[in-house]
Amino acid sequence: MKYIEQTGTGLTRKQLQRIENIAMSSCHEIGWRGGLDKRDNDREDFPEISIWGIQAMLEAAYKAGLEDAGKEI
Fold first, then answer.
1. Cα–Cα distance for residue pair 6/21, rounded to 1 Å
2. What angle do CA 37, 17, 6 make, to 5 degrees?
3. Looking at residue 11, what is its pLDDT?
4. pLDDT-based confidence at 4, cuts 50/70/90?
5. Cβ-contact 38, 32 below 8 angstroms
6. Nearest CA to 45 among 56, 30, 31?
7. Which of 2, 19, 31, 45 could cross-link with 24 by S-S, CB 3.0 to 4.6 Å?
8. Coil, helix or strand for 26?
9. What is the pTM of this model?
10. Distance between CA atoms of 43 and 46, rounded to whole angstroms?
11. Which residues, at least 6 apart from 19, have a Cβ–Cβ distance to it below 8 Å?
């Protein structure tokens, strides 16, 4: 989980872990490679992801943001 330690996004460790979990559960390729950490390898850093996979990740992240903000979906 180097991704979590290397990002300077201003997000908490818990929020970054949640994003990584969303990506890994929504996309087989990301789950297979073991997370969002940078590998410096084009084949692993640029996986093919379907549009519906990206949509699923974005929807899950949006819902997680709403939950964190204390709003109902």
1. 17
2. 40
3. 80
4. low
5. no
6. 30
7. 31
8. helix
9. 0.72
10. 6
11. 11, 36, 61, 64
